[in-house]
Each structure stands twice: as C-alpha cells, then as structure tokens.
C-alpha cells in the first residue's frame, strides 16, 4: 500500500520506517528541509534504538522524504503526526495540526478517488469533530464519508523503545465511526502486525479513539502517582515501597508495570496529556479530581527529595551533585524532567549545582547555563556535599568508589538505582 506521513518527529519517523519495513511504500512529508534531507540520507534527527537500521535499509527506496505535501495525493492514506503542544492553560494548541490538515486538504483537492486521512497526533475528541475534519473538508472541497475519510489512530509508543512498541503493540485502536472503506485500508496497512503478533484491534468511534489515548496516558501517570503516594506513606513507616509494589503487582488486576516509585513522571506527553484532560474537563464544567491529584502529587515529589536532602545537609554555598537530567534513561529529552524542579530548588537554597547526564547535559545547559556540567558521574561527585539522583541511568548502579571522593557522602536516590553501601548516607525517596 502507498502511505504518506505528515511530520517526521518521534512518532512520524518511527511510523514511516516501520510501515516501510512492513512492505509499504512510504512518503514522509515534513516542513523542515534538514529533517527531510537527513531522512533521505537514511538518518533521523531523533535517537531511537532500531530506527537507524530501518532507515538505512529503506531510505531512498521504499521510504522517500519530501517537503511537498502534494506528494500525498499519490498515496492511498495520509497520517497526520505533527505536534500538539500545550497552551499556557493546559489545553491543546491544535494550530500545528490544523495547518497540516489544511496542507493535506489542499494536496488532495484534485485527486480522483477516495483518500483516507488518519490522525495520529494526540488531540481531544472535540478538536477532531469541530476543527480537524472541517479543516480538511474546507481545504479539499470534499466531504468526509464520501470522497474522503478521516480516522483516528492514536499511538502508544514510548521514547527509547518506539520501534519495538510500534512493531509489537498491545493494541491497535482504529476510530472510524464504522466507515468500511477506512477500516479496509487500515486493516490492510496493519495486517503484518496483526497476523505476526495477534494484536487486538479495537474498532471504535473517532471520539472514543481520541479519548482512549488520553485515558491511557492519564491512567499510567495516575498509577505512578498512586505508587508514589503509597511510597511516601511507606517511607514514614520505614517500609520498602518496592517490596510492597512487587507484591501488589502480582495481582493481575493491578499488574506489575509502572509501579516504580520515586521522584515522579516527566516526558513530552504525560504532563501535556493530563493537563489537556484537566483543562478540557474543567471547561466542560467538571473537576477531574483524580487526574488533578495525580498531577499535584507529581509536582510535589521533587520537593520531597529536596526535603530529605535538607535533613542531612544545609546545602547553602555547598557543592551538590545532580545525577541524571533526562526525563528517563536512554534519551536526551528533558521535556517535563524532574531534574528541572530539583535544580531550581537547589538554586533557591543557594547550592552550587554540578550536574551530570550521559546524553542530556547539552540541552539542559540551554535552560540552566550557569550551573556546572561534569563529564562523568564520578567528576560530579568529587567534593560534593550531597547528591540527588533523578534519572535511572544504568551506569549509576555501578557507582561505588566515586562516592569516597565526596566531601560529605549523602546520596538521596529518587529512582532506586544506586546501590546502598557502607560509607555513604543513603536515603531512598520511598524506601
Ligand atoms: N513523542 C512521543 O513519544 C509520542 C507522541 N505522541 C503524539 O504524537 C504527536 C507528534 O508528536 P512528536 O512526534 O513527538 O512531535 P515532534 O515535534 O517530534 O515532530 C513533529 C514534526 O512535524 C513537523 N511538522 C509541523 N508542521 C508540519 C506540517 N504542516 N507539515 C509537515 N510537517 C510538519 C515538524 O517539523 C516536526 O518534524 C503529538 O500529538 C504527540 O502528543 C503520541 C505518542 C508518543
Ligand atoms: O504519549 C506518549 O508520548 C507516550 O507517553 C509515555 O511514554 P514516555 O513518556 O516515552 O515514557 P514512559 O516510559 O512512559 O515514562 C514516562 C515517565 O514516567 C516515569 N516512570 C515510569 C514508570 C514507572 O514505574 N515510574 C516512573 O516514574 C519515567 O521515569 C518517565 O519520567 C507512555 O508510556 C506511552 O505509552 C505514550 O505513547
């Protein structure tokens, strides 16, 4: 099948490369010339394990990139995979998506025959009905359900395992409102995944599909916040929250994943998607208490880490190491990272912050240009009066003798990654 993908970021690049690997002809369309040039050269502007080999195998062959939206008219189906950032009030800024919808509408205006547009970007249900579909219809002068179809097919991949998550998904959600032509195209497109992995396919309405994505992320974020809340209680009673989590996770109704307690969740989507749900619900006259509590608890965890540090060290004027800056290991992405509030709290206390991250130091330096960045965890720990561990980079598990070089070996671990050992004052956030 011939597919086009608008937007070559985290989601669009993974989608393009994986569809090519599944045997489809793919046209990746991005407004950024450098992104397009790199893609045609077999290179992505994002780091994702497994993406490199796919791009070098298919770029210039089954996978072609371009800045020309009109190329979409030569394909059977177009995915919209552009960003949907937050407005200051937490609601979604759909302007990038609407601009892409307009670009595609214009591109297919003269096309003979049916064209399917699939929304991959995360947006609230009302935006699909009230803005995206009317925009495509207006720009193409075609009617939804007649010459064109619009489907909603949310993406559940994680950064750091995007290719594997895409190729071996837990589910595929197809929101079509029962449009048979749309379902046939999507069934053919995803057929290799469905038959290889017996993936459940959820056929549903477009509004429901959009909400499933938000509900999925809100549930996962709230699950982490709940284990963090329980973990904070565990700490008060000198109980190890990880032992508790391992045990409750054995109950199938709870499940073992996403029970790692600590300094909280970050990333490009949990903060944005929970904020959008809260803003949407409030605008519609409902106070979504559980989701608001999940967000509030998440905002408090970094302060708890700092309070634990305060119990052992007066950080004012002291060198304090922050280990880990990325929102999770395996990425240089610092969006929503808990390291920001930790650094801000340390600076507010008058500490001299020295930070280390194997990938994210350069991006963090744009936000905090005045703090020191070490070349290694050992260098950050040297002469430090305390250390706050914010990201669970595996290399932190191997730290040992480096702690001996600290001026005052206090380690507050926000991720349960450092080994408790003799000679250091070690505190876990929830254990
Ligand atoms: N990052 C992630 O892991 C996940 C993201 N999502 C959702 O997927 C959507 C896309 O997210 P990302 O891939 O992270 O975004 P991104 O910001 O990494 O990439 C978006 C790309 O779209 C391009 N673009 C913008 N306007 C365009 C236009 N009119 N025509 C062509 N290209 C255009 C940009 O140049 C950029 O390369 C968002 O709604 C996000 O919430 C969903 C699941 C996972
Ligand atoms: O919509 C999205 O963009 C994506 O958001 C998350 O994926 P991602 O943000 O890439 O990363 P996760 O692995 O979910 O981690 C998010 C945050 O939660 C934290 N986390 C995760 C798991 C856990 O047990 N405890 C915990 O604190 C991580 O450290 C990280 O800061 C979801 O897991 C994906 O399904 C979704 O597609």
Automatic annotation (TrEMBL):
This is UDP-glucose 6-dehydrogenase. The lineage of its organism: Archaea, Methanobacteriati, Methanobacteriota, Stenosarchaea group, Halobacteria. Residues 321-420 form the UDP-glucose/GDP-mannose dehydrogenase C-terminal domain. The active site is at residue 269. It comes from the Archaea. InterPro entries: 6-PGluconate_DH-like_C_sf, NAD(P)-bd_dom_sf, UDP-Glc/GDP-Man, UDP-Glc/GDP-Man_DH_C, UDP-Glc/GDP-Man_DH_C_sf, UDP-Glc/GDP-Man_DH_dimer, UDP-Glc/GDP-Man_DH_N, UDPGDh_AglM. NAD(+) binds at residues 30, 84, 122, 159, 272, 335. GO terms for biological process: polysaccharide biosynthetic process; UDP-glucuronate biosynthetic process.
